[in-house]
Amino acid sequence: QGHVFTYDPGFTSTAACRSTITYIDGEEGVLLHRGYPIDQLAAKSHYLEVCYLLLYGELPTGTQLEDFERRVTQHTMLHEQMRNFFSGFRRDAHPMAIMVGIVGAMSAFYHDSTDIADPWQREVASIRLIAKMPTIAAWAFKYHVGQPFVYPRNDLDYASNFLRMCFSVPAQEYEVNPILSRAMDRIFTLHADHEQNASTSTVRLASSSGANPFACIAAGIACLWGPAHGGANQACLEMLKEIGTPDRIPEYIARAKDKDDPFRLMGFGHRVYKNFDPRAKVMKQSADEVLDLLGIEDNPTLQVAKELEAAALADPYFADKKLFPNVDFYSGIILEAMGFPTSMFTPIFALSRTVGWISQWKEMLGDPEQRIGRPRQLYMGATERDYIDVENR
Ligand code: SDX
After folding, report:
1. Do 164 and 139 touch, CB atoms closer than 8 A?
2. Rg of the chain's alpha carbons, rounded to an integer?
3. What is the ipTM of this complex?
4. pTM
């Protein structure tokens, strides 16, 4: 409320792009999707409704939502021949390596949604990617753990379908738990879009050359993988486990402050937020809820996380540098409690962010003034000079 949007014409001359999808105020810790605050969407909406909002700009009517969910549900299966791609990977391949490969390969199977000049093909590609990402991520997990693939079902909601494809085995059907499904759906929603972050900018840059949507989303997945970006949720949980007990927290706080030590507190700091990441607050509540449900509220990793957060927030160094917990600080704890290995954390981030990448991709293609991306540089190299033959060097 009361957020006045001032328009600085000079800004557009330096801004990477114009967008109407997501607004972030890093100083105030504000995140709006098409004007709606993220905490309201996380509390009152659900992921596929947020997908509709991001893609089409308005919250859907009941009929529009029903139709959208039906179209997504009808596209959750992968072309059966794509199963062969999975078996080409080593069993210990990181699921992100598999996702980059499979999503890029989709352009070889779904020719009828690769022509970006055709609005209908853009629409079909968008639905296909949102619908198939849970299947791809779940099958990457199943392949990684050596279990048979589980096919999606049309009678389950998006999050329940994903959890079942991950955890159901022939010997034991997965029992959908509404609280865990809700927590999974909330994680999808909290990661859906985030303005012009590194992976979204990668998707926009790749799309600006006219590359097909599957290749562009594969590029976004590759960028998200880095530990400074989407890979931070995996790195954060591994850091919490390495700390192990609260008494070792001061040692790690000291390392994070040591200029000569490359160690950084994973899950802390942000390129834009110089206040609390509003997503982290919701994620923290969700972590308490899930661990309480599973009866592991005294989870040692959560204890270390809470005491590390308190110690860092009380330390002037982090306050002075405006370093606060970000979205990745608590998500890993929830995902681990659900039974996911750390290697699945970033694939789940990629699954969630697909709608943000796609929405920004569609927005960019719809901008008549859009041209191929061409970031400029500040040249700091040698001035012009003549060639020297090797015998004279
Ligand atoms: C995501 O852009 C997005 O929107 C991304 C994302 C999304 O939804 O798409 O929000 C998702 O990527 C969240 C961020 C996840 N990454 C991590 O949690 C990794 C740990 N965080 C850091 O690597 C770091 O904070 C970054 C990469 C996130 C931001 O790096 P910056 O821009 O260099 O941070 P900064 O300019 O605010 O740093 C200010 C100072 C620097 O020290 P000085 O040069 O001033 O001496 O704080 C230091 C940094 O070295 N610093 C940290 C730190 N983060 C920054 N010191 C210790 N621990 C940290 N985590």
Report:
1. no
2. 22
3. 0.92
4. 0.91
